[in-house]
Amino acid sequence: MNLARLLARAASALPDAPAVSRGPIRYANYAQLAQRSAELATTLRTRLALAPGDRVGVFMHNCPEYVETVWGAWWGGLATVPINAKLHTREAQYILDNSQARVCFVSPDLATGLAPLAGSPPALEHLIEVGSADYRGLFGGQPAPLHDATSDDLAWLFYTSGTTGRPKGVMLTHRNMMAATWCYFADVDTIAPGDSILHAAPMSHGSGMYGIPHVLAAAHQVIPESGAFEPGEIFSLVAHHRGVAMFAAPTMVKRMVDYARETHPALEGLKTVIYGGGPMYLADIQDALAVMGQRFAQIYGQGETPMTITALAKHHFGATSHPRYAHRLASVGIAQSAVEVVVAGSDDRPVAPGEAGEVLVRGDSVMKGYWRDPEATAATLAGGWLHTGDIGSLDADGFLTLMDRSKDMIISGGSNIYPREVEEVLLLHPGVQEVSVVGRVHEEWGEEVVAFVVRAPGAETAAAELDALCLEHIARFKRPKHYRFVERLPKNNYGKVLKTELRAQLAREADR
């Protein structure tokens, strides 16, 4: 089944329903969005001579045109290659070259660096700036019939962030994306016609993928006029639109909570904030609930099984009388409906409840494999399970608690230390704004624990205070041996702390 059938269905049933807006201004209803997508499909398939399965790059800031280019490509049986607009031009060039994309839609300010790639088959043949005369000329022709794609055809070629070596292209089929879409309704949130999704996070990632269930429900996609995340603008749009959901990284949630605490904006239009993409510490989500109420849901996923491993639904946040409520808040929830989740040892056999191991996943949302990389595919999907590389534990009720990436685990004196456990404790101190814990090579113990700490504004938090806090909450061998007070933590384009950089900094110091 072609995902674009969802758009055709919505346009037929509710043609006048608002489909896409830029801020408060309507861009297209469902009849118009389907018409423009079908017209674009005609141009891509005929004038630009793309064949079913060809790749179309999308290197754009969030904007209404993002929606019609993605759905237009699917309508024509093509695969999209979403590229985060925050990436360096060279990174985007690598993705376009590796994916063998023949066409790329690009925001005007991102086009210059890609221009040398255009017009050189078999590389990129057409670089099309959104909003240009060339772009406007793609529309107005005869709309193409919906291409009869199969469920196993490639739909979305998503490139991993590449924290270890070059990013890999994750092949996601129409079946994979439909499974993730159904999980949204079953495990995350409800959507009614007239509800909205606010795209403040990059549409090249989770926010864009959550546009699919909103099209299925004939709901409204709203793109901030800034094309980015600004708390004041977000709350202004929440007041204008109804039934607003949004996907946000934990760092975005913290900024929203701080803004709401100071300004007390109207929240009636905000239905759900779905967070994921990085660790949300217990103290932070408790603070968010206190300031903004029970408007939160959490998902845990990876590019290889997008947005679809576990979920902590809104009703879990409301179950405050449950005896393990705090434990559940600190978890990432239970397995989503389309997948099986186990925690396994080094032999890939499930471990007992409460024991730590690698998180393994299988189901219809799990990728077809890595693009042009059979060796990595075989290793990651060994035994029919997606090996996530994440360390976690399942409790007896099926709630998954993540410790860390396997590469982030610290082994000191033969004992495993999970940085997140230490970070959770350090964040209990009111003088700590952010923290990241990593391991440093130690001649006797193998590794020792080092904490990089960002003090809260105006705080003069001392190492001795943090050490006493750790001794109060965790085993002595887990506490940091050194505290580094820094102004900020290094982060990637998605707001994740780059522990690789922190470890590299410590290694350079050791070399000196």
If you had to describe this structure to a student in words, what would you say it looks like?
This protein is α/β, with parallel strands linked by helices. It folds into two domains: 4-394, Rossmann fold (3-Layer(aba) Sandwich), CATH 3.40.50.12780; 409-511, ANL, C-terminal domain (GMP Synthetase, Chain A, domain 3, 2-Layer Sandwich). Helices cover 32% and strands 26% of the residues. The protein contains 17 helices and 25 strands.
Strand order in the largest sheet: 2-1-10-9-11-12-13-14-15
Count of discrete alpha- or pi-helical segments spanning 4 or more residues = 17
Count of the separate structural domains: 2
CATH class of the largest domain: Alpha Beta
Low-confidence sequence ranges: none
Q: What is the beta-strand fraction?
A: 25-35%
Mean pLDDT: 93
Instruction: Determine the structural class based on helices, strands and strand pairing.
Output: alpha/beta
Helix fraction bin: 25-40%
- Report the end-to-end length measured between terminal Cα atoms: 59 Å
The CATH architecture of the largest domain: 3-Layer(aba) Sandwich
> Looking at CATH, which topology of the largest domain would you report?
Rossmann fold
What is the CATH H-level superfamily of the largest domain? ANL, N-terminal domain
